[in-house]
């Protein structure tokens, strides 16, 4: 019987192709400088060959709609960026990236404005301003920061710095004690090789959790995320409100116990032990004058799968 064809690699597998290539190049270095140089030259020749082919393909396209479809494909777009063939300029790509995460920011009561994009010889910079009420405490800044960083760097890998300034005007008729100051949401972030933060909080890893898509409206589920090789993952509590899913660390900020068994009434999550309620749609802020809040986690669709971002502290799991 003929062998069954292998399944085509997924976008998630291709995301790590660069790391695998670099690992192979590093392994070649063990054979000496000459072997390493030949391996690097081989990679350059292959990349150049495929780049030339892509350039001819893009040059022969006379249908703008087809070019748009290619630019919308994450894998194809990444290859076009490598070879300088992407049909959209930097400003357009950053704008489109922010547009994709706006619904997520809206779930935290906020929005983001793109103020400027600068291109310098040492990289590109992006200037943003957060707007809206962002009803939570400053811990929600990590959630917004990760969502915005990831979206911008995926669409524009040449961006080397992202800076946030205070919005030109802020609403006055709001409860400012429940707001995140706009200038504290992101401060200034400089990208490093692992997408870590300038604050030294460690690298961020996105973990696919396809089971989250199985939650029905009004359901609450607990999941262990990030555990590999026998290690214990982070306990995550996910809630489905209408068509939206929200993720939080599985810990009640009031009684410090697990939220296992919590119930959801509209958007209010009730701790089964201390009975305190939290608004899961607005970053887990406490209801009924409760000043405590849940710890939100970034939750976005990546490669068609709902994924949770966990940031690792230096040398320790998140």
Architecture blueprint of SSEs:
Elements: H1 11-15, H2 17-28, H3 33-59, H4 64-72, H5 74-82, H6 90-106, E1 110-120, E2 123-132, H7 140-155, E3 159-165, E4 188-190, E5 204-208, E6 220-225, E7 234-241, E8 244-249, E9 263-265, E10 268-270, E11 277-279, E12 285-286, E13 296-297, E14 299-302, E15 305-311
Parallel strand pairs: 2-3
Antiparallel strand pairs: 1-2, 3-4, 5-15, 6-7, 7-8, 8-13, 9-10, 10-11, 11-12, 14-15
Helix pairs in contact: 2-3, 6-7
Question: Oligomerization state of this entry?
Answer: single chain
Give the ordered list of helices and strands: HHHHHHEEHEEEEEEEEEEEEE
Radius of gyration: 22 Å
- Within the largest sheet, what's the order of strands? 1-2-3-4
pLDDT averaged over residues: 76
The name of the CATH superfamily of the largest domain reads: Rieske [2Fe-2S] iron-sulphur domain
CATH topology label of the largest domain: Rieske Iron-sulfur Protein
Helix content: 25-40%
State the secondary-structure class: alpha+beta
3D architecture notes:
The protein is α+β, with helices and mostly antiparallel strands and 318 residues long. The chain folds into three domains: 14-83, no CATH class; 90-166, GMP Synthetase, Chain A, domain 3 (2-Layer Sandwich); 205-311, Rieske Iron-sulfur Protein (3-layer Sandwich). The chain has helices spanning 11-15, 17-28, 33-59, 64-72, 74-82, 90-106, 140-155; strands at residues 110-120, 123-132, 159-165, 188-190, 204-208, 220-225, 234-241, 244-249, 263-265, 268-270, 277-279, 285-286, 296-297, 299-302, 305-311. The strands form four sheets. Strands 1-2-3-4 form a four-stranded mixed sheet, with helices on one face.
